[in-house]
């Protein structure tokens, strides 16, 4: 770690987050003594512990004292999800430890490597994971910090000290992406989100405009989005869109298309994950891969072998009677995209959606948008709002979005009842960024008949 050359120990506050766990793995594999705290155990934290990283789930000082972390040689990495009054955080702050946000530490990494970043309201995780997969093969590797678990590699971090590149999902929450130094960056969308941080749509888009000023090599921007980039002199700008995907064919559960742009023409690309929205993600990823010198042959081969990302349109059950799809969508536009993809794959089936709203502020700020897209479902089931870092807001509940609200422990019986009552084949779509994913195995088992 160039900027902290005397650091030997790194303590992660909120180590169970998808981005934090990736950084923890990266530094642990580079020889640092890594430990951390998280509020609750998860599969991610269990995997970290299996690899040798010490973790506590108790907000007390006993664990810290057992670690013996010298102030001079220790760095604390904190996620904003950890509250200010957390006892461990308060102690570390008062003792004078160097405390950096995850984004600041990730920024250090992007200054040491050529960073291929993906920013935008939607599509970041799939697009960044695609880029990493296109670049990695038997002959060469890549470093990558991903916002989801790659189904090809069963991890959210790829490490290759010999590679000059690092793929990074550029998170706009809390302006985190302003700490990065992108060599090449994709911007997929700038639909307003995180208004609890930004306040207005204009401020949100301004943050993206500033982000583009940090790029040192090239911007790959989706055409038509409401963004006026501020590029440094010499930085090239490429736009991408649906016109790059020609001759799209959907047959026997597969999607094939031709990529055509000023950079290359690649015929008969088969999407490893045949979801309509992945065509657009693939076009962006292919453009970046071409810019860094990946061959057309490798792109075609690797795209066909791409298995997707956990909780990005995963199909868990697919029978003549019922299909079950799970997706991370938690913004109205993301939900609309997920619904559209289901309709294209299963045009003759009834669509039952299960949505767990994420955050009270997001539910409040985008209630009209949620109501609009949820109304396009044939049937809608809502779970209570997942609060994450927030306290309840009076009057803001799942009920304001329409649809029937059920508790998590009643969901399985509710779905079995609705599927049994349907006179036509059914698709069940679970969506949300909270802990709805923990119900996926139960739902899959219940619907596998």
Structure in words:
With 449 residues, the protein is an alpha/beta fold. The protein has three domains: 95 residues, NAD(P)-binding Rossmann-like Domain (Rossmann fold, 3-Layer(aba) Sandwich); 192 residues, UDP-N-acetylmuramoyl-L-alanine:D-glutamate ligase (3-Layer(aba) Sandwich); 134 residues, Protein-Tyrosine Phosphatase, Chain A (Alpha-Beta Complex). Helix content is 32%, strand content 24%. The chain has a seven-stranded mixed sheet with strand order 8-7-9-6-10-11-12, with helices on both faces. Strand 14 and strand 15 form a beta hairpin. Helix 6 crosses helix 9, helix 6 packs across helix 10 and helix 11 runs parallel beside helix 13. It is globular.
Main attributes of the structure:
single chain, 449 residues, alpha/beta, Rossmann fold, UDP-N-acetylmuramoyl-L-alanine:D-glutamate ligase, Protein-Tyrosine Phosphatase, Chain A, 3 domains, 7-stranded mixed beta sheet, 6-stranded mixed beta sheet, globular
Structure summarized in a few sentences:
The chain has 15 helices and 21 strands. It is of the alpha/beta class and 449 residues long. The protein has three domains: 7-101, Rossmann fold (3-Layer(aba) Sandwich), CATH 3.40.50; 113-304, Mur-like, catalytic domain (UDP-N-acetylmuramoyl-L-alanine:D-glutamate ligase, 3-Layer(aba) Sandwich), CATH 3.40.1190; 314-447, Alpha-Beta Complex (Protein-Tyrosine Phosphatase, Chain A), CATH 3.90.190.
């Amino acid at each position: 770690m160039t900027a902290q050359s005397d650091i030997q120990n790194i303590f992660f506050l909120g180590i169970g987050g998808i981005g934090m766990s990736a950084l923890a793995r990266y530094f642990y594999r580079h020889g640092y003594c890594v430990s951390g705290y998280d509020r609750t155990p998860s599969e991610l934290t269990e995997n970290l512990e299996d690899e040798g990283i010490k973790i506590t789930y108790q907000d007390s000082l006993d664990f810290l004292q057992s670690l013996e972390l010298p102030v001079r040689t220790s760095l604390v990495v904190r996620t904003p999800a950890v509250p200010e009054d957390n006892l461990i955080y308060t102690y570390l702050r008062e003792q004078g430890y160097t405390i950096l946000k995850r984004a600041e530490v990730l920024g250090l990494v992007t200054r040491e490597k050529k960073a291929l970043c993906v920013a935008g309201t939607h599509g970041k995780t799939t697009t960044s994971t695609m880029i990493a997969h296109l670049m990695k093969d038997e002959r060469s590797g890549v470093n990558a910090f991903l916002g989801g678990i790659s189904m090809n590699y069963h991890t959210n971090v790829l490490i290759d000290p010999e590679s000059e590149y690092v793929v990074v999902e550029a998170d706009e929450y809390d302006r985190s992406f302003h700490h990065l130094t992108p060599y090449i960056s994709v911007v997929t969308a700038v639909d307003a989100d995180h208004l609890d941080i930004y306040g207005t749509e204009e401020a949100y888009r301004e943050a993206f405009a500033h982000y583009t000023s940090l790029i040192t090599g090239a911007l790959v921007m989706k055409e038509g989005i409401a963004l006026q980039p501020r590029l440094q002199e010499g930085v090239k700008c490429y736009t991408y869109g649906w016109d790059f995907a020609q001759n799209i064919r959907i047959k026997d559960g597969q999607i094939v298309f031709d990529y055509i742009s000023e950079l290359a023409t690649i015929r008969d690309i088969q999407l490893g994950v045949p979801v309509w929205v992945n065509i657009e993600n693939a076009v962006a990823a292919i453009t970046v891969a071409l810019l860094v010198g990946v061959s057309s042959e490798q792109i075609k081969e690797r795209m066909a072998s791409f298995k997707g990302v956990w909780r990005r349109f995963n199909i868990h059950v697919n029978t003549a009677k019922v299909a079950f799809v799970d997706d991370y969508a938690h913004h109205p536009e993301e939900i609309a995209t997920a619904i559209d993809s289901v309709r294209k794959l299963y045009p003759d089936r009834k669509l039952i959606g299960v949505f767990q709203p994420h955050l009270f502020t997001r539910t409040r700020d985008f209630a009209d948008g949620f109501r609009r897209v949820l109304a396009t479902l044939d049937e809608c089931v809502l779970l209570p709002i997942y609060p994450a870092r927030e306290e309840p807001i009076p009057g803001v509940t799942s009920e304001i979005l329409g649809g029937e609200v059920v508790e998590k422990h009643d969901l399985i019986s509710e779905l079995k009842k609705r599927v049994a009552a349907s006179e036509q084949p059914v698709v069940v779509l679970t969506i949300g960024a909270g802990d709805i994913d923990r119900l996926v195995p139960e739902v899959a088992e219940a619907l596998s008949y």
